[in-house]
Design brief:
The protein contains nine helices and twelve strands. By secondary structure, it is an alpha+beta fold. The two termini are about 20 Å apart.
């Protein structure tokens, strides 16, 4: 049972709510960071999580005027987002109570932007610990992009029809040590190549002996004026040869050719990739922290 302020109501979310949830996320991005950075594909990917039953593990909260005031989902990890116009009413605390009740016993993990100091204070008071730091990195593209030479034996081309399964295997292998489970192709595609914002022309793949050894998945989010790199991966036995740097520069060049002013991507401290991105000219725009608590 969730306790809300008077005249606030709640119900589970459905995929029909994706536009409204995206608008809430966009309002938060503008409030905390001054720029829109919300994509309906991010919300759709949440609904595609195989362990997430929307009827029992999602929640929408509507305000007295019927507008969407907050949204949350919870399984082993989760997210809680309150619209800036509805902060200060205890919605975040109420939704955290709800999420923890669903998760206990077990560990509940969530990522919170460091700019949301009120949310960070709530988690700290509850005994959450910091697991990792995530950074949104950026690079300006107005000055043009130099693309390095291709290593011997390697060819690079943009993503084409039929590349999905190979890119899926490559990326899930590369991220196996950093995620709790392996995604099947359908779930992976929902968050990458099946998104409406997927940009195959800015998603280069490196091949050696006819096999994919590195790949980038990029998105072109309308209205942002920026390109976004969703995933970067290089096969473990081909690392250290400059393939990641090469693919990133190809993606940057593709976005620059379309007139986009910048390119961004997220990484986190557990991957150890921050130095790589800084070497190709990217800089930290903002950060978030992954918080966790073991619930009895």
């Amino acid at each position: 049972m969730i306790k809300l302020p008077p005249r606030y109501t709640h119900r589970p979310a459905t995929t029909d709510d994706i536009p409204a949830v995206t608008a809430l996320a966009d309002a938060r991005e503008r409030h905390f960071h001054g720029l829109p950075h919300a994509d309906p594909g991010d919300v759709a990917a949440t609904f595609a999580r195989p362990a997430l039953d929307p009827a029992t593990r999602t929640l929408l909260v509507h305000g007295p005027d019927g507008d969407l005031a907050a949204w949350a989902w919870a399984e082993r990890r989760g997210e809680i987002h309150v619209h800036p116009a509805h902060t200060g009413h205890g919605l975040g605390t109420a939704l955290l109570d709800w999420a923890e009740g669903l998760t206990a016993p077990g560990r509940f993990v969530q990522s919170v932007t460091d700019a949301d100091t009120a949310a960070v204070e709530i988690l700290t008071a509850r005994g959450y610990t910091r697991l990792a730091t995530a950074w949104l990195l950026e690079i300006g593209l107005d000055g043009g992009v130099d693309v390095p030479e291709v290593p011997g034996g390697v060819t690079v081309r943009p993503f084409a029809d039929g590349d999905g399964p190979g890119a899926h295997t490559l990326m899930e292998d590369a991220f196996a040590a950093f995620q709790p489970r392996r995604k099947d192709y359908a779930e992976w595609a929902e968050g990458t190549v099946a998104r409406e914002t997927f940009a195959p022309w800015a998603s280069p793949i490196a091949f050696e002996n006819g096999e994919p050894v590195g790949a980038v998945v990029s998105l072109d989010v309308p209205g942002s004026g920026e390109g976004y790199i969703e995933r970067v991966a290089v096969r473990e036995d081909r690392r250290g040869r400059g393939i990641a740097r090469l693919l990133l520069r190809h993606a940057f060049a593709a976005f620059a050719a379309r007139g986009l002013s910048a390119c961004t991507l997220w990484t986190h401290s557990e991957t150890g990739a921050l130095a790589l991105y800084e070497r190709v000219g990217m800089r930290v725009r903002r950060s978030a922290t992954v918080h966790a608590r073991d619930l009895a």
